Amino acid sequence: MTAMHQRYAESALISKERYISREWLASEYERLWPKVWQMACRLEEIPNPGDYYEYQIGTQSVLIVRENEDTVKAFRNACPHRATRICSGTGNTEGELRCPFHGWAWHLDGSVLEIPDADDFAPECLRRKDLQLSEVHIGQWGGFVFVNLSETPEPLLDFLGPVVEGLAPFEVDKMRLIRYRTTVMDCNWKVGLAAFNEAYHVEATHIWDLSGYAASRMNGVRRPARMSAAATDRLDTDNRINARDPQGRTPGSYQFLYETFPTHNKMRNVPELLTDSARLGDMGDPKKAALEMLRLQQMISQAHQDDVDYVEALSEVPGDVPSVKFFADVRRAVGAARGVDYSHIPDEDMVSAIDYCIYPNLVGPVSAGNWILFRFRPNGDDPDTCLYDVMFMHRFGENEEVPTVKHEFYSRWQDHDEWGPTIGQDLWNMGHVQAGLHQSSFTGLRLNRQEAGVRNFEKFIDRYVLADGDPAA
Ligand code: FES
Ligand SMILES: [Fe+2]
User: Fold this and answer.
1) Confidence band, pLDDT 50/70/90 cuts, at residue 228
2) Ligand 1 centroid vs 150 CA: distance in angstroms?
3) Can you list the domains of the chain with their CATH numbers?
4) Looking at ligand 1, which residue's alpha carbon is closest to its atom 1?
């Protein structure tokens, strides 16, 4: 049963302790993170033999190494001699892994290559099996490398379950990073994830600002301005929701479908509302309206300059077809021009984002050729901050040159003002949630049906953190 089929949401409040307590965070480090599959990096971040990527979760560091064209391995990043971290960040090892402290070295498969002055060690200190780099379970899906610190993990594809099938049409393995940013957010990692795990907030947080965007440009720290009267009129025209909802639900609950799985959850716009979406002609000059809407999509990386160029070059834009169909056709034509076939993807999935929340810490909207993926990780032992990665991915043609991507780091999210208006609004909310969680008057989170994904996620966390060592319980 999906969340939308339930008459009411569940009533139990969600404890706030899980977002603010150091003890809860310590329990997550002890019981959750060592047992779950975690996305470590994209394969394109380690394209050549000897390339490595250091993935960190709490105090644990995992070294992902490309051994050759076909094989990627992962190792515990600690030298068996005196524990030194063998590699940091990203780079290329030039064919061997060598500890910087005393020069112990390993082949890329983790077997011992060299131990300087081996004769000076007691033989029992140098048993070969103890000196191999300790291997970590690894899995690949969708162009990502996943790692699992457990000794006996379930197969990655079993864990990903419905995500694999749901995202198959989008061929995310063929997408490539076009921007990659990491920053520190002023909230618990689960508060950050939850901000993208429901669409209940869209009306209040985003639509007002998107509709009146020209008048209320987001600067990353300012709360969006209230919707202008003109924008109100336009919203009514665009969405035509209130008049059509027979049960008088809010526009948000009418507009989105939510699906919860035993692990992971999904949300998307109601397909029928998309296939019968507003006509460009209803919004004035169709071409002008199309370019304006593309501009909004561009702000959230769901459209790119080649979409804009394509529409610019059209002598006429039809005013009487649903806008979603028009934009789907544009995307297909732009794809075809670069040799990418989107003919198997229905109109309603082409340009409207489908959000999968991939437990424990990934979420983000995918459409034909684009995926913005957010990853949240706890930040050391501080429950009030988290590491936030934003991966913008885009589908290129076979012969197109893929730009080299520089991984950007910002120690404060406010120091960078190009998150895009909608993401900036989400980020603004997070610190305010975290501050409120500390108020003694606040007793716990009350979640509605649209927020069932948030509840489902917290139940997943409970399976690990509260199950006393049995993650399957
Ligand atoms: S700590 Fe690595 S070689 Fe000594
Ligand atoms: Fe949002």
Assistant:
1) very low
2) 25
3) 38-152 (2.102.10.10), 162-465 (3.90.380)
4) 82
